[in-house]
Amino acid sequence: MTMTAAASLATTADPDAETSARATPKISIRNLYKIFGETPVEALGHVRQGVGKVELLERFNHVLGLSDINVDIARGQITVIMGLSGSGKSTLIRHLNRLIDPTAGEVRVDDEDILTYGEQALRRLRQKQMSMVFQKFALLPHRTVMQNAGLSLHVGGEGQDVMEKEARRWLDRVGLKGYEQHYPHQLSGGMQQRVGIARALTSNSEIMLMDEAFSALDPLIRTDMQDLLLELQQELHKTIVFITHDLDEALKLADHLVILKDGYVVQQGEPQGILLNPADPYIEDFVSDINRARVLRVRSVMAPGDITRADLAGEIDHNATLEDVIAASGGETTHSYRVMKEGRPVGVLRMADLVKALVPRAASGQGPRTGAG
User: The whole model's pTM is what?
Assistant: First the structure.
């Protein structure tokens, strides 16, 4: 299945914010295809005529990695690319630093087509503009924590003093002060991944690529790492591209969420909007088991209203979860609350609307599916 750029750009919970973010993307991906096989250009013709992933493999012995990908990655935000195994998410992220070259399409960074880069420009892109955090940590076992954290500066020719100063700074920031002279094997998995993040931050690159960065960690450590990433992002405003197969993780981290299936974009947009308005039965099934009360925010469910009404039961922050509101209401479903953002009223949340939002909607927007079909 091939989707056009217009079809893949789904509606979002905050269209104005999305439009503004896309106006000046840090990375722009246009009409990107990747086909693996002996004659990928010839196979591309079949794909453009509507041949899907399964048929391409069975009839033409080629693997469709990516099909007509159109994604804008906004500056200073976390874009999460997610999907099940084989969806193409890791293939896509490797196009951003040209570990993989496409069969067709365009990848622009700061409005420069990186597919035209020669060896020197490509090396500069990888050393100065992009850093990468890997699932398996990718630390050098014979180097200390400090040497691993400062590796990009060392490779870039910086002096020992500069390397150590920056490495210490970021190791301290990720909670590893005092471990500078340890070796990777002396650290837990979570601590090793903190070194990986410190190494990415020490490079001072504007873009961080994170490929299943927390997938190898135990659940509690994984949660800690997610919280650490959000804390750092609030301070640093990096452009982060985060790959995951875990929807809970995606919903927690993403400013912009891109969901892939069989190499194409099924839906993308603000996560709250995708959860409330699935555009495809695949997405509907994907989000059906999510704890909506824990994930949905008041800002996504509130409505314009008379914020001076005397019968309002109280005030609630626009970014509170629906679970927070349920707890505050004591389970009372008739209340309405004034919604506040940075000290000013922005709308009204009716408990009746909250209850409706807890019921998954079908992709058609007609409500949940019934029957055995």
Answer: 0.83
